[in-house]
Amino acid sequence: MKKDDTILIVGAGLCGSLLALRLGQRGFTVNVYEKRPDLRKVDISAGRSINLAFSDRGNKGMKLVDLEEKVKELCIPMNGRMIHDKEGNTFLSNYSGRDYEYINSISRGDLNALLLDEAEKHPKVNVHFNTSCKKVDFENTKAYFKNYNTKSEFTQTADVIIATDGAGSALRKSYYLERKFLFSFSQNYLTHGYKELSILPTENGGYKTYKNALHIWPRGDFMIIALPNLDGSFTVTLFLSYEEGEYNFNNLTNPEIVTEFFKKEFPDALEIMPNLVEDFFENPTAPLGTIKCSPWHYKGNTLLMGDSAHAIVPFYGQGMNASFEDVVEFDAVLDEEHESWEAVFKAYQKRRKKDTDAIADLAIDNFHEMKDHVANPIFQEKRKLEMALEDQFPKDYSSKYSLVTFNEHIGYREAMIKGRAQDEAILNMIADGDIEIKDNMSKEVLADALKRVQEVTNTILKHDRIAELKE
Amino acid sequence: MKKDDTILIVGAGLCGSLLALRLGQRGFTVNVYEKRPDLRKVDISAGRSINLAFSDRGNKGMKLVDLEEKVKELCIPMNGRMIHDKEGNTFLSNYSGRDYEYINSISRGDLNALLLDEAEKHPKVNVHFNTSCKKVDFENTKAYFKNYNTKSEFTQTADVIIATDGAGSALRKSYYLERKFLFSFSQNYLTHGYKELSILPTENGGYKTYKNALHIWPRGDFMIIALPNLDGSFTVTLFLSYEEGEYNFNNLTNPEIVTEFFKKEFPDALEIMPNLVEDFFENPTAPLGTIKCSPWHYKGNTLLMGDSAHAIVPFYGQGMNASFEDVVEFDAVLDEEHESWEAVFKAYQKRRKKDTDAIADLAIDNFHEMKDHVANPIFQEKRKLEMALEDQFPKDYSSKYSLVTFNEHIGYREAMIKGRAQDEAILNMIADGDIEIKDNMSKEVLADALKRVQEVTNTILKHDRIAELKE
Questions:
Q1: Residue A470 above 90 pLDDT?
Q2: What's the stated role of this polypeptide (chains A, B) (predicted)?
Q3: How far, CA to CA in Å, does B238 sit from each of A394, B46, B88, B129?
């Protein structure tokens, strides 16, 4: 690899834009091809993931390219989950017992536009829109494109091709179909799909419900959630089975039944969603899939990054954050001064894949946590203890959620292993009556609880290692 | 569905032949298309899985079609694993403490031929060879074929198409490529491949090493195994990484290095394998993959069964057994008298998939157990205790291996959950010094050990359920 190599990036979404910006900063010649029109000129929101959760791992990417302050202006802090029950009662469950730990709602379009603007400031970075990648000849580092405006087809070679073209990646499809090497691959869909709806602002642009939370209406087998936007609106997402249960996407086919469903299950939401029926029938229903694969690269020619390598379900709010962290990790590998692109790609996958596998699994765990467990008394007791521990012993305890979301110096896999053991420890201590959780526990009582939680957690971790014959 | 429906089966391997036979017995009209020549007329062994492990779950399939006695004649009992260390020392580790529990080595070709012979005795069952399925139009229940002899291409419709065409299934490929429904799919390769070798019989047709065992030479990162054949030979399989370690498939490129590798790692095997180099360079190196997918069926038109739905790695000796059990389970669903093929297929997948997912995961566990753990002292202590418990309390204890292999009345998933908890319990009791394992433990000592193993196992199972918020 040479300092002036030409890099072709397929896809100018969040990951591709950040990657182009960072590689531009490092002095590479970068050509980016994006199938959609320039989102700074055309409104291309299609009722799908208008806003996203942005948190500490994503912010590492913004620090890397010196955009932390500019991105902060786009953020709406969400301090916790606002849980809505069927009677319309609400309670706020903070994400952390530490006040300074929270996640943010951010507009996908605004953030993507900012990254594109910054990338294009580098004269050696060029972004081409309306140009779709059809396939990649990875033996010859050559991509096949079609321009939607001119209808012309052309090929482009480069020293390296990096595909950040999302869950439907053309490069990944070429890896699979060409069968030139052993390519492990999985696509797994949940039984549930999703549909985006909205809560519009008040007449004077205010928020119709509490602004600084991620709202959840958990109903066991399905749920709606809502994230705030800067204009006073909320983007609402319904997660629902395609075919199971009394109400499902297959049978919500007319305005009456949709309204009946919301009246019965989400009455307080329905009150502030007069536009429900219109949204419901205008916006698409989309599937929820997880994609894993390996290897991510072919020799030193091509590499998958972001969703193209590891698409995940949205329930941990980590999709974008994981993709930004990909760029941070890739950048760190570039600093190691490997002798070839192949060595860079190998080192990157070795360092990174265990963590993207972990966040994929954690995201599915959180699907069940959000739609179901948050309404479970034993789960709520665990959260109460964890909040108190994080508040009283901010340096000594982090819940699984905190480990994943706010401990960006450790990888997702380490967070998963420790976080799951802690959850198992606390849930079992509660179930076995080994710990009693009250409001306003004294610091002495909490100190004792912390010690015992740590002991039980360590025993679980040790026993797991022994069971795997690793000790 | 009607009693005289026409069923098209793609693939006349072990699963397809048994299915054709059973459906013939039930009175259906059955047309089977197989891409290879008739193995009863042409020798088509290609250095790949010449013999297989046949055990109790597979035998359920033979009982179903009344072939148990005929199959027994093809079987060579293997009572345990004969472990060979680097110095040539051997020790036998039985599969069970119950004398009547053992597995068998059986010839794939002989068994397949028997099933074909029996299937063809039914006048409404017809088997067509040299006819490859190219794709399936599952909307219209139509399969596309090419005959290798006449080079002609044709299509065939039926009331139902069942694909038993193995890991490379044409129907599964059509499900994936057509994208007409959400199809979850995974193909995952191990870092290791395999190559078949052989130990030839003695001059007078005897066995060069102990006949009634599955021989293993475990070396941590790689291994060879050997299974006996009726003619006095053993089929040997080398499992080795493609690219990692001092010796791997990528660098074993000449006779000298192959011989050096065997001399160093498997000296006692090399002594009885004068034909090693010839075998090594004549036989292919093949990958080891796991395939899972869902749904297995499209409406009431088409269904995947056997390896086409769930190909697994060979380390539990359950691939064929699982496919035969598929036929038994499918037959049981047919007895339930559902109103449509769609209802049959749905009920079959609901009942069966959890178990084939489990055996896929168990088979990967056993890869690590066979190449590595069997040589681990703490693992060997566990096995010693389990043998003694099975011997002294045959009705009260079954190891994970026994649950999977010899407890054919419970499903793979139940066997996995209970077996893993038992393993965790015993390994941790040994590691924590909570149990001492000696030779010739008295019945009283063993009774106490059994009670404590059961208690710890039940606690683990309970804690797991609590951690999943299922209690």
A1: no
A2: Catalyzes the hydroxylation of L-kynurenine (L-Kyn) to form 3-hydroxy-L-kynurenine (L-3OHKyn). Required for synthesis of quinolinic acid.
A3: 53, 16, 17, 31
